[in-house]
Amino acid sequence: MAAREKHQAQETAAPEGFEVAPLHQMTLGYLISLLARLLAQSLKVRNGADGILPGQYPIAVELLARDGISQRDLCEVVRIEQATMANTLKRMERDGLITRRQSAEDGRLATIHLTEDGARLARAAVRNAADVNSVALEGLDPAAQAALRDMLIHLTDRLEADLRRRDD
Asked: 157, 146, 126: which is closest to 46 by C-alpha?
């Protein structure tokens, strides 16, 4: 091994006495977080530099389904904190993906709407997300895919219930 390659290998090696555990020994949270990051990175690559970002994806999908929803309702449905939602919507508005309009029912509220360009990019992102899911689920038969989704929903429900109990 050349001196340069040896130096690079030493720089990337784990600290002495520390062993990196194989993925099957990692915690559930670590694995799910890793999977989520990889899914997001894959979606970002497919959407391209001017496309919907992974953090904007759930908002864009919800607006495709229910254009004109309030920011508060978006927070609730997408399960994003108010401050995070405000920052994300500000960036989406700056990038021409959404517009805000005064609510016809309540003048104190604004409703959020996808622009024509935002809707086009959101529809493309939905197609790209389906492609990402196909890659991730490749090799699993439909029953295994359904079982995986059911398990993830079950875990989500249990953790949300636990958080509600702890908030009380």
From this structure: 126
- For the purposes of burial, counting CB atoms within 10 Å of the CB of 101, is it exposed (0-12), middle (13-18) or buried (19 or more)? exposed
Enter the tokens of residue 64.
């495709």
Q: Are 125 and 133 in contact (CB under 8 A)?
A: no
| pTM over cut 0.70 | yes
pLDDT tens string 133-156: 999 999 999 999 999 999 999 999
CA atoms within 13 A on the CB side of 33: 5
CB atoms near residue 88 (< 10 Å): 19
Residue 5: left (phi > 0), alpha (psi -120 to 50), or beta?
A: alpha
In whole angstroms, give the CA distance from residue 114 to residue 64: 7
Tell me the one-letter amino acid at 96: G
